[in-house]
Amino acid sequence: MNRFYGTGVAMVTPFQPDGQVDYSALERLINHLIEGGVEYLVSLGTTGESATLSKDEKKQVFAFTAKTVNKRVALVAGIAGNNTLEVVAEIKAFDTTGYDAILSASPHYNKPTQEGIYQHYKAIAEASPLPVILYNVPSRTGTSVSAETTVRLAKEFKNIIGIKEASGNFDLMNQLMRDKPEDFLLISGDDPITLPMVAMGGVGVISVTGNALPKQVSDMVRLCLAGDFKGAQAGNYSLIEFTRLMFAEGSPAGVKTALKQLGVCGDTLRLPLVQVSEATAGKIAEQIELIG
Question: 264, 29 in Cβ contact below 8 A?
Fold first, then answer.
């Protein structure tokens, strides 16, 4: 599980102007992130616009990513949905070659009870050949995974190894840190609060901002994990405005704009997502120049 200490990046999926997956750009992105010093990558999470990819496209992106990464860093596959049977079938059919874990967001739209969330993840844990990282992101799903449910899952299923926590609820996280098994991982799912989450016992972040600025994010997180929070503050403060802009007009529109300006990939998105405004793109360019 030490493979998931530090900075993971929830990768965007680059598209060509006509909307097809841009595999040359995906290769550039993967190398950009690894050379930037991140510890692991996440393929086809929410930031990867997974909801807009077909099953065949997902299969191709997963395989291409594993081949390109070539075990240089740990690799996580995003597999989630609000139909438990479909998610389980997708996990059972998944080619695990090159992958180290599965990241699965709690069901969206259905708004299940805590028992429903537990049963959903129970089915995933029993089906998965890889370790599972839970993902709590109530701003997108409509419901929050409670600390009690997370701890229950962590204690009952040894292959549920951690949670990407993006609720922003520090009361929940305090309770989780107090009650969880010692080796269960708390991972920030929200760039702006990574530093305080590590201070309370978290092991790092699965970052959106890190797509564009992998070195800056991973350097800051490593200082946090070393206990040098004073040293980490300068890097954290320098990223505040840039990170705000990454989400100002929706994610991953902001970070795709930054990646285009950095020459890594284009800024094409699939509907219903659209590109950021010229005004926001200009502000992002200013921040990139400022950060250097």
Answer: yes
Please answer whether residues 77 and 99 qualify as being in contact, where contact means their C-beta atoms are separated by less than 8 angstroms: yes
Catalytic site positions: 135, 164
Please give the torsion angle defined by the CA atoms of residues 95, 31, 233 and 139, in that order, rounded to the nearest 10 degrees. Answer: -40
Comparing C-alpha atoms, which of 46, 37, 11 is closest to residue 26? 11
Q: Which residues are annotated as a binding site for pyruvate?
A: 47, 206
pTM (whole model) above 0.85: yes
Annotated binding site: 47, 206
Count of all residues that appear for the chain in the document = 292
Nearest to 149 by CA among 183, 180, 184: 180
Beta bridge partners of 9: 41, 207
Q: What CA–CA distance (Å, rounded) separates 49 from 106?
A: 16
Dihedral pair phi/psi, residue 52, rounded to 5°: -105, 5
Residues 95-118: tens digit of each pLDDT = 999 999 999 999 999 999 999 999
Q: Which CATH class is domain 2-230?
A: alpha beta
